[in-house]
Amino acid sequence: MRYGYYPGCSLSGLARPYDMSTKAIAEPLGIQLEEVEDWNCCGATEYFAVNKMAAYALVGRNLANAAQQKSFTDLVAPCSACYVNLRKTDHNMGKYPKLAQKVNKALEAGDLSYDPGTLQVRHLIDIIVNDIGYDAIREKVKEPLKGLRIAPYYGCLIVRPELGEPLDDPEYPMSLDLLMEALGAQVVDFPLKAHCCGGHMTQISSDTAYELIRRLLHNAAEYDADAIVTLCPICQLNLDAYQSNINRHFGTDFKIPILFFTQMIGLALGMPPKSLGIGKEFVSAAAMLRKIGTEPELEAAPTGKKQDDKSLPMPGKREG
Amino acid sequence: MNVTKSNHTFLMQVMDATLGGEALLTCLQCGSCGGSCPSGPDMEHTPRRIFAMIGAGMRDEVLKSNTPWYCVSCYYCTVRCPKEIPITDIMYTLKQMAIEAKLYDDRDAPDFSQSFIGFVENYGRSYEVGLATRFHLTHSPLKKFDYAPFALTMLTKDRLQLRPERIKGIGQLRAILNKAKTMEDM
Question: HEC string of A239-294?
């Protein structure tokens, strides 16, 4: 099936592995992704705080551009913040005609327009569990994730707020749990699975964010999880890149790799870890990979000397 | 909520600027919002109290408080509110009002939001390197976590975009945003 693909800013930077693994599993699952032309940022959780009308118009341009492509009706976003902003704009334009009018008035300045309801905005997990389905995925599994203990982490924005038909339960979602089981993994109890990772608070008030991250890591560690599996770039970033800070801050010793659910699907389909962007985490996933009998052919650590390096020299780097 | 003439202006403004904001009038003061809030303990006033303060017309105290800026947009309060008050959106409204009135006490969060959208308006995309550099250099960098090793690891893991990417239709986007900014909130 053909879908519009809105990667969002995170997937071309800090969540590149999410983009890589999404594209890697698309073909074997029969998903065709057509990128939205010249898409712009969704505004994350920042633009709505500064100017609501501009924030809606910003997202409106993406919806208008995507609808113009006409080759798909379902627009897929892998990032939770992108998903919620696109869905919220489409939903609220439909619910509040006055908003639709204003957004279209703004879009007119760029010769664009968007009729709410033209597109169905969906998160990547939604199309994987509902369009492809658990059974079809189970059949495609070549290397079951046997023996792996997984803490499935949903975060906030794919289960809340409720915008039209809910994707899952806002308090205790199950779709990622069932997906991980379909891949052969063992899902551990993870009561905090829909709690917040702190979002942008790592930047603004690290004490607030660190406590939220600590709780999540602690919960997963208590149940001996081999990995936390997530579906949001910021959840992945906060739990992975800040894990060493958490350990310093609280005197803990967490070593839990944080992976995207698309990477887990890829592993179960028998794809090499590197092709899924595994190895780009701060907290190594090597032990987890060995547990499922995959030798971690991770990306080589930068040694500074590469004889066949054809890239331009970095400042201060000596030739030869 | 008790609405008298003297305090209705601020309450009306907040409701008018928020889609579905009229539900604020039905607030029961039950406290489900504050109890659900992950950053509630760090807020000067819980959301419940903020709503009572809005009703009481305490505009400056509300807009000065750190409460909206500690909202992480997790929507727990919104889905749990028995009166379906769009609490997260009200927090967005309060942030925007605080920026416009320049009433916030702590500049970190408003500056972060504004730096972020600065890159979006210039390039059409967000740009983490620029954002982090600008933000951490101007906001007492030593108080924050050590950005350099973080950035270096991100870089070696190929998770940092070194140059901002500019969309083709940046002129079109700016025209749209400028038009939108001339409109009143709703």
Answer: HHHCHHHHHHHHCCCCCCCEEEHHHHHHHHCCCCHHHHCCCCCCCCCHHHHHHCCC
Q: Do A50 and B99 touch (CB under 8 A)?
A: yes
Residue A130 Cα, gap to closest chain B Cα (Å) = 23
Q: Find chain A residues with C-beta within 8 A of B116's C-beta.
A: 44, 46-47
CB A229 within 8 A of CB A260: yes
Cα–Cα dist A150/A295, whole Å:
19
Are the beta carbons of A110 and B172 separated by less than 8 Å?
Answer: yes
B167 to A40: CB separation less than 8 angstroms, yes or no: yes
ipTM for the complex shown: 0.92
The token duo for A49 is 């705080």
In chain A, what are the domain boundaries?
A: 2-123, 143-291
Rounded Cα–Cα distance for residues B100 and A130 (Å): 44
What pLDDT was estimated at residue A305? 45
How would residue B185 be classed by pLDDT, with cut points 50, 70 and 90? Answer: confident
> How distant is the Cα of A36 from the closest Cα of chain B, in angstroms?
12
Residue of A nearest to B70 (CA): A201
What would the pLDDT profile of A158-202 be if each residue is shown by its tens digit? 999 999 999 999 999 999 999 999 999 999 999 999 999 999 999
CA distance A137 to chain B (A): 29
pLDDT at B160: 87
- Would you call B147 an interface residue with chain A, using a CB distance cutoff of 8 Å? no
Listed residue (A154, A22, A29, A24) closest to A76, CA to CA: A22
Q: Which residues contact A3 (CB under 8 A, 6 or more apart)?
A: A31, A32, A33, A34, A72, A74, A75, A76, A122, A127
Contact A160 B145 (CB under 8 A): no
With a cut of 80, say whether residue A304 has pLDDT above it. no
Strand ranges of the sheet holding A120-123, from the earlier edge strand across to the other edge: A32-35, A2-5, A74-77, A120-123
Give, for A126, the enclosing helix (H) or strand (E).
helix A124-126
Range A143-291 has CATH code 3.40.50.11810? yes
A248 → chain B, closest CA residue: B145
Q: Which range has the worst mean pLDDT, A80-94, A145-159, A292-306? A: A292-306
CATH class of A2-123: mainly alpha
pLDDT range class, residue A218, cuts 50, 70, 90: very high
| Domains in chain B with CATH codes | 5-101 (1.10.1060.10), 108-181 (no CATH)
Pairwise CA distance, residues B55 & A141, whole Å:
57
What pLDDT was estimated at residue B7? 56
Residue B144 has a pLDDT of 54
CB contact under 8 A, A201 and B70: yes
pLDDT band at B138 (very low <50, low <70, confident <90, very high): confident
Q: Which of A61, A109, A201 shows the shortest C-beta gap to B39?
A: A201
